[in-house]
């Protein structure tokens, strides 16, 4: 019986870790393996072939992605396209994923383009864009189109919530400027599907700190109750700012509705839970109405319904708070 395959070289192990467990056949051959050794690992189910010319070693990813399966899945899709088409550049949603922009759909189709746009046979499941890519940037060793170009490619092909979440995140992370947002919208002109996105670009707001906050804001907007403030500063009697709340509304009687959207992992550690409890107690006063939601609540439309339930009988009317407003509470 054949023996166990020899361990991978340190170079291949490093590459696999950097590439979300993926290796190209070229990389394997370049590190001393032969085609039969590669085929044997595939036959034994140690490796899989996600695309022609690429193998999945199952090697764990590096950094914090190792314990975030969704982030790993997205990045794996982005890297798969590059390995399947050597010399290519990552485009669209995949480029945004590698740039660190948040809000992409869970399932991402691998997509790349060749710098010259020259025709080449596609390698499913990778999408090969036909437009040339005259300019690209290096992101952690991966060639990607710039953020503005990626947004112009991606937004017309997405649904509203992930599209606006990506725009918000790019602004929040400083990867896109307001003028860059205008340029991306202009660059998207003429693309299939762009007409339905016309109003989405104007909804982008870099104050959203997570996709869940974007979903919640859009949910409230659709319910007819756009927030009066985002990331509203909350201070105690002495003027010390001790909190910022994600969404806020000023009620006619002078009280305020404060809405918090919890992140998936941020509040899981015991110390964070304690800090949150102290903070929650301070903002929950006789002059505030506090509601707290999860990302799942925001995605499934529960935020807008609850906000409407509070604001409608109170007779709320839109009154955006000036930038820099600080809410004083007796705490």
Task: Give a verbal description of the structure.
With 331 residues, this protein is an alpha/beta fold. The protein folds into three domains: 10-56, no CATH class; 63-203, no CATH class; 211-328, no CATH class. The protein contains twelve helices and 13 strands. It has helices at 10-18, 25-30, 35-43, 69-84, 92-99, 147-154, 160-172, 178-188, 211-223, 270-283, 295-299, 302-314, and strands spanning 22-24, 48-51, 54-56, 89-90, 111-113, 127-129, 137-139, 142-144, 229-235, 241-250, 256-261, 288-293, 326-328. Strands 12-11-10-9-13 form a five-stranded mixed sheet. Strands 1-3-2 form a three-stranded antiparallel sheet, with helices on both faces. Strands 4-5-6 form a three-stranded mixed sheet. Strand 2 and strand 3 (54-56) form a beta hairpin. Helix 5 crosses helix 6 (147-154). Mean pLDDT is 92; it is low at 265-270.
């Amino acid at each position: 019986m054949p023996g166990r395959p020899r361990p991978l070289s340190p170079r291949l192990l490093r590459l696999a870790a950097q590439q979300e467990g993926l290796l190209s056949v070229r990389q394997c051959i370049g590190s001393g393996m032969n085609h039969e050794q590669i085929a044997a690992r595939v036959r034994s189910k140690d490796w899989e072939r996600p695309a022609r010319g690429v193998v999945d070693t199952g090697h764990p990813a590096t950094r914090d992605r190792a314990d975030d399966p969704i982030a790993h899945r997205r990045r794996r899709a982005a890297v798969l396209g590059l390995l399947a088409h050597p010399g290519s550049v990552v485009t669209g949603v995949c480029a945004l994923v590698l740039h660190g922009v948040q809000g992409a759909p869970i399932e991402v189709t691998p997509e790349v383009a060749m710098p010259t746009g020259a025709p080449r046979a596609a390698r499913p499941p990778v999408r090969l864009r036909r437009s040339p890519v005259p300019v690209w940037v290096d992101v952690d060793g991966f060639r990607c189109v710039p953020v503005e170009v990626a947004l112009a490619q991606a937004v017309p092909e997405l649904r509203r919530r992930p599209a606006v979440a990506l725009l918000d995140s790019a602004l929040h992370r400083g990867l896109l400027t307001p003028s860059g947002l205008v340029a991306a919208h202009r660059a998207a002109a003429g693309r299939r599907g762009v007409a339905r996105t016309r109003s989405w670009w104007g909804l982008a707001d870099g104050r959203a700190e997570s996709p869940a906050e974007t979903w919640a804001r859009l949910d409230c907007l659709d319910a007819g109750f756009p927030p009066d403030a985002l990331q509203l500063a909350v201070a105690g009697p002495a003027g010390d700012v001790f909190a910022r709340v994600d969404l806020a509304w000023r009620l006619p009687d002078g009280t305020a509705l404060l809405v918090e959207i919890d992140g998936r992992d941020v509040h899981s550690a015991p110390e964070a839970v304690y800090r949150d409890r102290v903070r929650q107690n301070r903002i929950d006063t006789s002059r505030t109405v506090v509601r707290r939601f999860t990302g799942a609540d925001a995605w499934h439309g529960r935020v807008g319904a609850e906000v409407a339930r509070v604001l409608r009988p109170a007779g709320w009317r839109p009154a955006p708070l000036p930038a820099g407003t600080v809410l004083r509470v007796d705490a």
